[in-house]
Amino acid sequence: MLEVSGLHAFYGHIEALRGVDVTVNEGEIVTLIGANGAGKSTLLMSICGNPRAAAGRILFEGGEITQLPTHQIVRLGIAQSPEGRRIFPFMSVLENLQMGAAVTDPGHFDDDLRRVFELYPVLEKRRHQRGGTLSGGEQQMLAIGRALMSRPRLLLLDEPSLGLAPLLVKQIFAVIREINEQQNVTVFLVEQNAFHALQLAHRGYVMANGKIVMSGSGETLLADKEIRAAYLEGGH
Description:
Elements: E1 2-11, E2 14-24, E3 29-34, H1 40-47, E4 55-60, E5 63-64, H2 70-76, E6 78-81, H3 93-100, H4 109-119, H5 121-125, H6 136-148, E7 154-158, H7 166-182, E8 186-190, H8 194-200, E9 203-208, E10 211-217, H9 218-223, H10 225-232
Parallel strand pairs: 3-8, 3-9, 6-7, 7-8
Antiparallel strand pairs: 1-2, 1-4, 4-5, 9-10
């Protein structure tokens, strides 16, 4: 479904991605782990067109999207829930979800809204509440729900567990599995919580200094001594 090959990207004169190769097959959950500053978020943002790839190719369902503007990429079926949530704080929950649905057929809105509320019942209760007054966990739910309102076939999730209590982290990961299995949405997940991410994922990649340095099944990476020492030792 997604093929990234030889991707380079810059912030000013700083090279953030250095020849990244990643594939995500239809129906998979693929996770990308690595330390802060490794380039994980930059990769997701480059897939969506900002920052623009300086070299390399990005293919989605066989078609090249490397130089497409972001709004066209979204219309093709890719949605992102960004790091830090980035909801619209002065808009209500419902208005945030309406923004997510702006690129789709309005005839699907009621069904899509119902599916989001089934995943996150608390959002239905808060539907008229301003997004900025929600708790951190509720804001993360809203960010994922907003992305789902665009009816994506590929969902990019950037640090969905960041800053959340352990119980909420488990809930977020349970919903990611449900989105994948019951709504047939392919997921590319960036996570610092390597333990939960690799337990969830079919496959995983490890990034360091803008490069992919290791890949394998979730089980294989969880069992790897180097991965455990770098990302898992000292607790989950």
